[in-house]
Amino acid sequence: MKDGGFFFQRLSGSESAGRLGAISTVHGSFTTPAFMPVGSQGGVKALAPADLKETGTEILLCNAYHLYLRPGIDVIRAVGGLHNFMGWDGPILTDSGGFQILSLSALREVTPEGVRFRSHVDGSLHFFTPAKVVQVQEELASDIMMVLDDCPSHSVAYEAARASTALTTEWASKARDAKTDSDKALFGIVHGSVYPDLRVRSAIELIEIGFDGYAIGGLSVGEDKTATFEMVEVVTSVLPKDSPRYLMGMGKPEDIVAGVQMGVDLFDCVLPTRGARTGILFTSFGQIVIRNACYRDDTRPIDPQCTCYTCRNFSRAYLRHLFVSHELLAYRLNAIHNLFYYHSLIRNIRQALAEDRMDQFTKEFVSLRTQEDGRHTGREGGEVSC
Amino acid sequence: MKDGGFFFQRLSGSESAGRLGAISTVHGSFTTPAFMPVGSQGGVKALAPADLKETGTEILLCNAYHLYLRPGIDVIRAVGGLHNFMGWDGPILTDSGGFQILSLSALREVTPEGVRFRSHVDGSLHFFTPAKVVQVQEELASDIMMVLDDCPSHSVAYEAARASTALTTEWASKARDAKTDSDKALFGIVHGSVYPDLRVRSAIELIEIGFDGYAIGGLSVGEDKTATFEMVEVVTSVLPKDSPRYLMGMGKPEDIVAGVQMGVDLFDCVLPTRGARTGILFTSFGQIVIRNACYRDDTRPIDPQCTCYTCRNFSRAYLRHLFVSHELLAYRLNAIHNLFYYHSLIRNIRQALAEDRMDQFTKEFVSLRTQEDGRHTGREGGEVSC
Fold it and tell me: Is residue B28 part of a domain?
């Protein structure tokens, strides 16, 4: 599956904004829209590469900030790069760590040159410049690298958002200059908080610098959901049609469906693997909270329609038992199901896009999630009542 | 692999006490000596049935006490028995729970009729009689059931040990009478603490009652190791040659080698799966403590000789990283390796028995564990220094 570096091809010519595409990397190709499971520290929680392949995973998300701090870039270099280190031979996208410095670090001191922060692991001091973060990702041998972005906290005022976005654009330019490996892609990150004019300006300035793809960052950090999708729509309407678009860190099933309709190609989200650990199981008819007593002697699989390893072999009763008994196996079986659900959703979306019936797909998707066995759900986040 | 119920056949005619044999159950056959991974609550920590098969597991140990308390026998019956519940189609041996009542329960009130105890899960009161525990195991549809035994605490005085052993024998007789399913095996449990005459009397009385196999219980609970093996030798010299012998809860690699030489057929131990969670990895040259800094950039697999999934795909550096990062994947990859090591050890022992060179095997086994890359180990428990 080795070929000549990064390449994106838009495939669908539908009048709708939803697009079918293909991304090639030196570690293989995949169709877009695509969902990336999160393996921040070089491992997707509870899942081995063979599990990921079996669930339909084609590209992984890892995190430069995490891997730089632990185990350290020298270790990953010694083992021959991130793919060898984690035993994953498919494409890898690495986030820069801008968001992690905001969310995890005790210290975060932003200067025009970069950001000083304390490691959340051992308290040590570090300084990330836009160039250094590209270098780190090139040493990891990531297939798609992200620029270092300044992530302001949620509900930032207009003037602060403007300044922060301008800094991100400046850093993006420096990152672009620092890139040495033409096989790898570098994506810019559109910011601008909830301010449409800042979002548009950010997108336009990044397009001027020129990137292999464009991410939409700084969303789903606490703002109103209407604002979130208003921003996605504003940005995708400006971005070049023949570059891939990546909506960062947003991936409820309904977000993916909505994002695709607005022209997004790449998604990542911790929900399927975090849900596995908190007992939230995704199905076409909504989310099951597996610890609920109603599943105590429920002999059915999580989703009777699902063909994943977990649904083929285990009952809700067994999965509930493992979960309430804190058995480690619970987290893996749940994660296998959840990721299989996400990748099935993506495959169904691709099919709908190919057949130009994305609107109809969306209607059916919403309708299925409002009933199960005659029970109405209606709970927040599509949770199935029982 | 279905056949007509429980059957043990001694295969080897060697002059040594080590025996090769075969056990048949309605859920399939396997060769002895055999090692049983521990899946007390209906799941082996971090491993799915497919993992167990891949590591070479042929029979599992589960626990009637745990499953009776959680999820409850009614749940397992509803799903069609323990094999269906956990998705394991091979043989299962269930322990009665005598030891768990001692080690886990806040209350333990022994009467001639049985034992009253409090659930360690929810504090509820329960009463186990010898007959009830057989009934529970028949409802679980276990292949090999254990009698309820009275487990006195470590360092019990002679007179108390005598009384406790007599009670266990009395209960064993009641358990024998309560058994209704001829397809399943019921094993008696030899007790007698560290007193040879009590051990011999216990064995002889159980043989008189008549069981499908004989376990040696109440060992490795804190007594001196010399005493442990003195008891094993005393008991196996009395037990019938054509019945299987099971040494309960003892399974350091060196214990298995020594136990086999004394004529033991079945072993179980939490060490391979507990070691997986505490970062102790078993190899032919001793135990690796994976969190040690010397493995930080060690590109070798755990054991270069090993062909398990973990050793085929991951370096010590990656496994150390997963472990120090508390990644759930660490526990599964470690458990796969450790169980593969245990089952490989068992396969090598079977081969040595078949070729009548168990003494030579033991010498080589000990010699290999004293060196690695020219480093001497010499630490307690075979830990490799670095």
Answer: no
Q: Please check whether residues B168 and B143 belong to one and the same domain.
A: yes
pLDDT value, residue A373? 44
Instruction: Give the DSSP per-residue string, B69-89.
Output: HTT-HHHHHHTTSHHHHHT--
Minimal-distance CA residue of chain B relative to A85:
B318
**Taking CB atoms and an 8 Å cutoff, what residues of chain A touch B313?**
48-49, 87
Interval B157-176: pLDDT, tens:
999 999 999 999 999 999 99
Pick from B48, B70, B325: which is nearest to A332 by CB? Answer: B48
Q: Is residue B103 over pLDDT 90?
A: no
Domain that holds residue A70: 7-268
Q: B220 and B204: one domain?
A: yes
For chain A, what is the domain count? 2
Beta carbons of B317 and A44 less than 8 Å apart? no
Which strand (E) or helix (H) includes residue B24? strand B21-25
Is A95 marked active-site?
A: yes
- Size of the A and B interface in Cβ pairs below 8 Å: 119
Grade residue B78 by pLDDT with cuts at 50, 70 and 90.
very high
- Min Cα–Cα distance to chain B from A155, Å: 32
Report the residue from B47, B79, B321 with minimal CB separation from A299.
Answer: B79
CA A334 to chain B, closest CA, distance in angstroms equals: 12
Q: Quick check: A314 and B87 CB within 8 A?
A: yes
Which pLDDT tens digit goes with each residue over B226-268?
999 999 999 999 999 999 999 999 999 999 999 999 999 999 9
Q: What's residue B381's pLDDT?
A: 57
Residue B168 belongs to domain with CATH number: 3.20.20.105
A328: chain B residues, CB-CB within 8 Å: 45-46, 277, 328, 331-332
Distance from CA of B28 to the nearest CA of A (A): 19
More confident site: B32 or A106:
B32
Whether B197 is catalytic: no
Q: What is the mean pLDDT of residues A40-49?
A: 97
Q: What is the pLDDT of residues A265-316, one digit of tens each?
A: 999 999 999 999 999 999 999 999 999 999 999 999 999 999 999 999 999 9
Domain boundary among A268, A297, A328: A268
